[in-house]
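Pipeline run #58 for the internal structure catalog. This entry was flagged by the ingest filter as a single-chain record with no existing model, so it goes straight to prediction. Upstream metadata was stripped on purpose; only the residue string is passed forward. Reviewer on rotation: M.T. Logging verbosity set to normal.
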Amino acid sequence: MVLKHTCYVSFEERGCSESITIRGWCSEVVIRSACTADAVHILHIYSYYVESTAISFEYEAPTPEEFARRIAGTLERYPYIVVEEKGVIKGYAYAGPLKDRAAYDRSCEVSIYVDQDSRGAGYGRALYEELEKRLKEMGILNLYACIASPIEEDKYLTNDSEHFHAHLGFVKVGEFHRCGYKFGRWYNMIWMEKLIAPTILSHAALTDR
């Protein structure tokens, strides 16, 4: 990966100012910070998971305006990134608070979605590697993923997300049973954890961040 401090003109028009270029692919792939102008394109990816799968527990996709507000709210504190190939957004990932209490500030929840027709191309791994790098630089120590889990695999939900996270170093640490109801059936929810930095024991080291 080569860090670049300027983006293509199309990025600059949207107010985005930093990207990472990934070389060694069939064509140039760029990971950059998202901005609210990306809302329609990112929502197109997310809507599939809301309307056609139980990966998201939302019943209806948000409006572009609501989705833009979600992006803006995340960017106030955490990274929100997209991966593009030839100017087309192929996936996105972001972080958020694990809980709203100060003691949780060195941990965060992460989420990732890849365009349904672009899965298996390596975009997910590239997004998570970049997101993890940015979170480490912020002083984040622990990552958590909340993942819908089927009681039995069906056409709406498989165990692929759990396997994907496990492949990236996450471990399953908890499971809630029959807590999500969608498409006329019940689903479980699991928590997976990844420790990305040594636990800081010094109070001085923590307060310096």
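catalog note: Strands lie at 2-4, 19-22, 29-33, 80-85, 88-97, 107-114, 142-150, 171-182, 185-195.
catalog note: The helical segments are 9-13, 39-52, 64-75, 123-138, 160-167, 203-207.
status: ready for reviewer M.T.
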